[in-house]
Specification:
By secondary structure, the protein is of the alpha+beta class. The protein has a single domain, classed as Hotdog Thioesterase (Thiol Ester Dehydrase, Chain A, Roll). It is built from 4 helices and 6 strands; from the N terminus they run ααββαββββα. The chain has a 6-stranded antiparallel sheet, covered by helices on one side. The protein is globular, with a radius of gyration of 16 Å. 28% of the residues are buried.
């Protein structure tokens, strides 16, 4: 099971953004982000990089829920379509799902919605499934 602490400890950038883990199970995930001034671009809308990060993390978590020990994943490719810019405040919610998983790869989808359930962006991505956590690999290498 992936916890809020696990997510924030393993990915400090997610902690810096203020992303909250709402759901992580059975090939699905849900994240939330309360929009802050630091998330905005020069036009006063949420920066596309913030939205892409939330989409990427939502898909990655969805894939990780299908791994027996939640070892981790890395993004191989990602396509994002932006539907509309978001205003300077409010809450964004991202929902991710794993559409297909093989022995070494996962194909996932996610979307971000804003106030009044308005679709902000959608993404699809392919993720490589990792077999061991980096700290396990590092400790094994240091003893070899």
């Amino acid at each position: 099971m992936i916890s809020q602490a696990d997510l924030r400890d393993r990915i400090p950038f997610v902690k810096d953004l203020g992303v909250e883990l709402v759901l992580a199970r059975d090939g699905r995930s849900q994240l939330a982000l309360e929009v802050q001034p630091r998330h905005l671009n020069g036009w006063g809308a949420v920066h596309g990089g913030v939205i892409m990060t939330v989409l990427d993390v939502a898909m990655a978590i969805a894939a990780r829920t299908l791994q027996p020990r939640g070892e981790g994943v890395v993004t191989i490719e990602m396509k994002t379509s932006f539907m509309q810019a978001r205003p300077t405040q409010g809450r964004l919610v991202a929902a991710g799902s794993c559409a297909h998983r093989s022995g070494s790869m996962a194909f996932c989808e996610a979307e971000v919605r804003g106030g009044a359930d308005q679709l902000v962006a959608r993404a699809s991505g392919t993720f490589k499934l990792l077999r061991q956590r980096p700290e396990e690999r590092d400790s094994r290498e240091s003893t070899a």
